[in-house]
């Protein structure tokens, strides 16, 4: 059971400040529609249909980055998903924002400007410090309650995430609620059968952290991606090296090779490594090579091979629970989606408890026409997903928990 209150506990006819995470890819100056809009729209729609006055806060990019921009386009996308008007004001906590907030009627929705344009939102600091920022001190008196639905940003200690729960009754939205319950299941639920963790992606530290935290909870680790190649290097295969123009492997190896080698020794046959890898040949076609046949790395490897997928599939199908973090290859290129899609299809075809997460990995489900309903949960979180798996604290979740504790005093 979640340790915070949810919108089921929200008093009727409330003016609510709702923190969303609508951070999206920006192309030609416009935000791109994605699963985050779909998920958050459910919370926003439910609040509006219940007659609450709904005012939303969200961020886009960081100051100084190319994707740091207004949320006016986000309002239009959110409006399509919610199915009712979403007004937008190009202000966060100035006079225009205050006027627009006070004018919101029951059932209406307002999106404020990019919260990272407001002084005090960044950088990270403790909740007490963030509760004293001008952003929180200005907006909090205008609301009856605060709802945090931005689970994918919950690993940040920014004002809009940790400051408001100290000064307003605080609740979790539907995304926050479902993400928290699913992503902590590996640590909190008891499974009678085998628990399998499929780990890929580009960061060796993610794999290391997951193994360190979950070694007693996970029976099998199936590896792929850049991280999997580094583990192959530790096992003695001539892969996991940078070729000219690459910078993915050697630095990570220098920093982590002793830990990787010790994990291979500690977990032994509980770790499954790729038995073949795929690269692009001179004609641009996918070519697979057995790991045992590699004498020297001469090509960038962009996916695990078909034989590896065939090795991983029965392990997944025999598991009671499977958690996926990170892609096994460059799935955005159809030629190198075999590993990621093969594992996803095995999870979808099993009756196991299945959670997919880790940054963009969930995009493969839509990209390759898989059915999200075939998985127990598909996470839209990246950093927060890893923290939840490894048991690290999530400041925004802790802030909600503190809010519940205060309400029970």
Task: Please render the helix and strand layout as text.
Blueprint: E1 15-19, E2 26-27, E3 30-31, H1 35-49, E4 53-57, H2 72-82, E5 86-88, H3 95-103, E6 109-111, H4 127-131, H5 134-139, E7 145-148, H6 159-163, E8 170-172, H7 174-183, H8 185-188, E9 195-199, H9 204-214, E10 220-223, H10 225-234, H11 250-267, E11 271-272, E12 276-280, E13 286-290, E14 303-304, H12 306-317, E15 321-325, H13 338-348, E16 353-357, H14 363-367, E17 377-378, H15 383-390, H16 395-408
Parallel strand pairs: 1-4, 1-7, 4-6, 5-6, 7-8, 9-10, 9-15, 10-11, 15-16, 16-17
Antiparallel strand pairs: 2-3, 12-13, 12-14
Helix pairs in contact: 1-2, 9-10, 9-11, 12-13
Please describe what this structure looks like:
- It is elongated and about 70 Å long.
- It is α/β, with parallel strands linked by helices and 409 residues long.
- A hairpin with a 2-residue loop joins strand 2 (26-27) and strand 3.
- It contains 16 helices and 17 strands.
- The longest helix is centred in the middle third of the chain and has 18 residues, at 250-267.
- The chain folds into 2 domains: 7-180 and 393-408, Rossmann fold (3-Layer(aba) Sandwich); 185-390, Phosphoglycerate kinase, N-terminal domain (Rossmann fold).
- The strands form 4 sheets. It has a 6-stranded parallel beta sheet with strand order 5-6-4-1-7-8. It has a 6-stranded parallel beta sheet with strand order 11-10-9-15-16-17, with helices on both faces. A 3-stranded antiparallel beta sheet has the order 13-12-14.
